[in-house]
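On clarity, I found the account of how folds are encoded harder to follow than it need be. Since the whole study asks how a given chain folds, the encoding of that fold should be made plain. For illustration, here is how one protein appears when written out as sequence plus structure tokens:
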Amino acid sequence: MDPVRNPYSPGAGRKPAALVGRDDALKAWATALQRAERGRADQPFVLYGLRGVGKTVLLSEFRRNAVKRNWIVAQIEAGSGKTLRELLGEALYEPLAELARPGAGKRLVRALRTALSFKASYDTSGTWTFGLDLSGAEGGGADTGILDTDLKKLLRDLSEAAEEEGVGLAILIDEAQDLTVDELTTICTIAHAAAQDEWPALFAFAGLPSLPRILAEAKSYAERFQYSKIQQIDENVVAEALTIPAAQEDAQWDDDAVALVVAKSGRYPYFLQQYGQETWNVAAGPVITESDAERGVLQGNNQLDNGFFRARWDRATPAEQQYLRAMAVDGDAGGPSSEIAARLGKKPQSLGPTRASLIAKGLIYAPEHGIVAFTVPGMAAFIGRQIDA
């Protein structure tokens, strides 16, 4: 069929043509937006799960829904080499610039002045202009160099400005497990204060399965945040991820083809998109058959091995790859660090730096003390397909 009309789009954070199986989370977020506009704040949302389950897609949909309500919105990704201060400062510039106008309300003007001081706290050479003379305005003071003080001042002033505009403030952080301990502590403290004092502000974090534990270690009250474990698409609706996009392009899947792709994908959204894309491209159409699906899965696996999995494997050093091979014996669910060390003929303590490096690279995580597991479904099988050098 025409590849130009192919409705499937594998890729990190790319919104699928049919976002299915996430209705509960989206409904909860929509409710929270409306509650915040009425002065009833909610605790932060936390989306956690393996890679490829659609956390970033869902977080981005949260952002779109807030933008549709004209909220002040900043979405960032931690672990990009920049500090939380820099990431949030730069992400907030555009929505603030859009709000700046002659005759702006007092709270908005104050927030703009505070934003300028926050910018100066990490970039003394950079200049922002909102097209307004703010020299005599109230505000500022977000440049002490103390993250907790500066960020709280900025977000409180922005929340008040949003309230003046009849909307709210949304802060969304992807890969939140990559924030530093100080950054995690600060953002948890501010998010908790926002809920306590009923700022018209919402926070949402997304990250690996270890994120709930990391947040709780940063601040104990983070245990009261709203946690959603994002997993495979529910079996009752997973077929729609394939059939709805096809129907929009005047094509259809036969039942056997759907069943095959669903089974091979493990119901993981990323794999569904990859197999769907490849199956579409090999099919003559307009009906996609089981034979088409078989070929599509084979080509999809090749694409996954050469891209999705390979990119992660190649990030590991030879010593780290040996550790991953020893892990792969236990499958994706992982196993005890002590057993992995035994397979490698080493003491667990000697492998501590290797394990820590793999966690820092986001290739593995510790679901509980003394246990390690892969962050990517299917990684163990991929490793088993690699020729041992």
